[in-house]
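Assemble and predict.
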Amino acid sequence: MNSFGRIFRLSIFGESHGVAVGVTVDGCPAGIPLTVEDFLPDLKRRKAGAAGTTPRKEDDIPEIISGLFNGHTTGAPITILFRNNNTQSKDYEAIRNTPRPGHADFVLDKKYNGYNDYRGGGHSSGRLTLALVTAGVIAKKIIAPVQPTARLIEAGGDTDIEAAIDKAVEMQDSIGGIIECTAQGLPIGWGEPFFDSVESVISHLVFSIPAVKGIEFGSGFAGSKSTGSQNNDAILDENGTTKTNNAGGINGGITNGNELVFRVAIKPTSSTPQQQQTWNTQSQSVEAFTVKGRHDLCIALRAPVVVEAACAIALADLMMVSNALKL
Amino acid sequence: MNSFGRIFRLSIFGESHGVAVGVTVDGCPAGIPLTVEDFLPDLKRRKAGAAGTTPRKEDDIPEIISGLFNGHTTGAPITILFRNNNTQSKDYEAIRNTPRPGHADFVLDKKYNGYNDYRGGGHSSGRLTLALVTAGVIAKKIIAPVQPTARLIEAGGDTDIEAAIDKAVEMQDSIGGIIECTAQGLPIGWGEPFFDSVESVISHLVFSIPAVKGIEFGSGFAGSKSTGSQNNDAILDENGTTKTNNAGGINGGITNGNELVFRVAIKPTSSTPQQQQTWNTQSQSVEAFTVKGRHDLCIALRAPVVVEAACAIALADLMMVSNALKL
Amino acid sequence: MNSFGRIFRLSIFGESHGVAVGVTVDGCPAGIPLTVEDFLPDLKRRKAGAAGTTPRKEDDIPEIISGLFNGHTTGAPITILFRNNNTQSKDYEAIRNTPRPGHADFVLDKKYNGYNDYRGGGHSSGRLTLALVTAGVIAKKIIAPVQPTARLIEAGGDTDIEAAIDKAVEMQDSIGGIIECTAQGLPIGWGEPFFDSVESVISHLVFSIPAVKGIEFGSGFAGSKSTGSQNNDAILDENGTTKTNNAGGINGGITNGNELVFRVAIKPTSSTPQQQQTWNTQSQSVEAFTVKGRHDLCIALRAPVVVEAACAIALADLMMVSNALKL
Amino acid sequence: MNSFGRIFRLSIFGESHGVAVGVTVDGCPAGIPLTVEDFLPDLKRRKAGAAGTTPRKEDDIPEIISGLFNGHTTGAPITILFRNNNTQSKDYEAIRNTPRPGHADFVLDKKYNGYNDYRGGGHSSGRLTLALVTAGVIAKKIIAPVQPTARLIEAGGDTDIEAAIDKAVEMQDSIGGIIECTAQGLPIGWGEPFFDSVESVISHLVFSIPAVKGIEFGSGFAGSKSTGSQNNDAILDENGTTKTNNAGGINGGITNGNELVFRVAIKPTSSTPQQQQTWNTQSQSVEAFTVKGRHDLCIALRAPVVVEAACAIALADLMMVSNALKL
């Protein structure tokens, strides 16, 4: 469903080529300074423009509908809209009968009996991540001074990101990447046994981001190949500082006061310029197919701020729940 | 918190060295045949006994408290207990002041101001996975004929599992592993945008399992190194059958009718026989430390049935929600 | 918090004198025909205009932001806005220091440390019932042919409603009333033990409507004065038809196939033209006070459609949950 | 469904004539002193024994399964069982084909296709209120020094309760009653707009109690017959003390610091000794019928402690959510 969170809750809506996309954030305490300008830096980071990103340009100006008064949050739900002013729906009409490989076109059509808004992925479009980024800005204010930071550490299997993008442009094929997100200054004790472990809540949100197909905390998959004496983090002082950080800052699902570390696998953009094969639902045969429209060669370039937002949102809810459970 | 699910809901409770551990399953339809015997095969798979597993022996006989009548589910909550009859709490008293590296001892003590039941990990013990396995048996009946299957595909970095265990026993150090879970026969359309993607719900549950530190769907992390034209799955027929299955059976967070595939990274058992360092809260210094008690050298050996249960529980809830949203 | 429902979920936002009020409906099945016009009749019923209602006139044209495509619901969240185009905020500035008796001014100021949008009740305004009515229109489509009907059966203690209004206008004092809501054609079996009884879910929503202070189902308070032999409803046939309907169509929290009947007590409009006493937070003394602004003498006149909407929303969620729990 | 609450959560299970009934309380802070003895006074108040109550005697000794350690709550879920040791299931076998008027027998049979445990009402039995009372004891510790107090203020329409019971015994017919619950010392600000108003959350829980058919807050139904100038509560000082308390301590769904007051209508016990009519599902005809088994003539006598528990549970969750939403 389209809402998430126990106390700090967000609810998202909208379609890529409809009127707007937007988000409602409920459970935000009153009295937090908040202006339109606060959203702009993260929205800009999410924007297209660089090499390897789509030429579709959206203003992405947040339109604050509710929950703000005199420059502060009021305790009431904060709803923010982003109008879609640069849609080219006709691009999508033509390909309706040829579901794009890697996209949700085919499953959405089946799931909703053809009633879904298929234009540009509709409600499943990456454009919905605007809503996450927006809620993330609010979440970051709540968890301050904790400050998640995400960055692309690998693209197309290469840690030299620029070179990877150049290569993708050259071969005219899309690529994926790996994003690492860290956060320092977390107190000990966020996260709840059993089902609201920090890993559970973060991964739930992160896998809501389109194109994410993997996540690992601390030493993750590599750690599974090591031994207990290698992978355990020796505790060094009364604050719980550890010698290594293979746990990624989490023990038993609960923050241990060390740096939070996780990595996210982003698949190559499904809309590659390369010719592909797909089922044509009209001709009832497999056909060669080239995706049209304006797309990112490496969506992973724009995803760090989204992962960061997901992390902040998860931490905000975990923090508020954790605080609520104290006497 | 200790409950999970929207329609098919489970709530777990209990401590490793308390009276019992248990689970309540709510939202199970009435009329499903269910007996004590139905639980035994999966419970046995979770049991210790093999090389590399703990010598602690528990009968693990499910005691059905409610929700069954005349051999069928009644529609009311099903509560099942497992008495703890083989606890050696004194093992744990001695190490109270030396939080075990890799375990949650340290964070639980801080989070709960020392009030947590610290014996054997208390409520955060791996023994709580009994509750998951039990709920998993019920979930499997609901999603039948879909049948998740999980197996250990790598231990200590080695795909020859027996060799890996032998080596761990020889070096007297614990090891981790990678579990792969698959499920065939899923219909198209389970999973909900935006926050209840199949990946989100499965990962939420899987990261509730102690020792899990990573998860990837389909081609996962490896896929992030490939290109769109390599990673996209060409659609071949009107049922959505794809040529490859790099998506792991999920597009846009929704099942696409192909095989569900995901892999889970299990860290090496934190309780290694090797000497480690930790903070002694009484002497206020870092001390050499060797974990006592009976432990698994490779907890990953016992984890496949738990991962399988988590998968089944997630799918049961996803299925029921998906059905609820149809007219 | 500002969302409600397990499957059919609504989330509301907005303030009386802000940009807009609105609602997001999630969990609405795809394929339901829905147009702007569908909302107008119920919105009109909620409108002011008659004797005893406020002269504030709002266009109340629903602005559909998302979730509709080609005249049908898409399965994605439906967000609908109502712009506030007739606000006179200066009316409220003057009375900021004199919290209006019967209103939430005083408690909101304390709860939110003065950060709440106090203009016209802000987020706690009766204007938010627009969101309920809007969601109610969608809910009614889902539960059709079940059709809740609510009407004012008593105003100011008088069953002659017109006479009651005339008297209120004459004495220039506000009055309350009692609304009865009924629904026929419900199947047997909606409602869930233990906490999602039909009465629980309906009352939860109904008490979200400002000014509601009581609810009773079937014979309600009067029934508590009778005897079991008088109050029990004899079952007359295999469909569960009963001789009387003192249960109001609900046994054990579950619909029994007979008519659903409940009554709601609406308090007199807090904004009476009569002079009252309140605490002046500036002068720190009790002062005589007359409420300004444009208000309803009998808000109960406009409330039936809101109660009807709350009933429809509750039934839609109960129906969908009930269906989800069947094999 | 069988769980309730956002932070302070309870989950109930069990059947009247099964193994046990029980409750799991999740979201209880660690460090609260709690012993078996703490439960006994409220459990005793709920017990049968007085004139007008059932002769069925149960020991009702709470069996604490989890969540307690060294006499304090641990922060983990608290599960408590009550074994059923005095069941006479054969009483119920005979009447299986004659659904008892006023009970849920008929609807449960239809809802669950005959799979429900019908003995003594099964999971819908009043015996499940043991679970509420138990959770209420814990909730009262959380909200202390706030202390809800409920008492029967009317039985069979008579405020002289003893006389009412005598009369019921004499005429051998069951009666209902009205319970008033109050609580002093509440701070200003518990309760959340829009859907978690104090009235919404309390009524949701109170209508989960079998036999409850009405609730009103403050002046309630009587208030709906008065005028605004009569019903409004003048604010008298900076603490929000009001001259009257027609609001029952709640404005805009939020506690205003004055006494919380609500009244609950309990229907006459459905199991009256009087002969009634019901549908015989075997003979397919309406038949005279007399209920067998051991029953309360006035279940309302035993209900105040249950209403009090529901109030405490609701307030505990409202308090914790309200605290969570503060910076």
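Chain A touches chain C at residues 1-3, 9, 11-15, 18-22, 24, 26-27, 30-31, 64-67, 69-70, 72-79, 81, 111-113, 115-117, 122-123 (CB under 8 Å).
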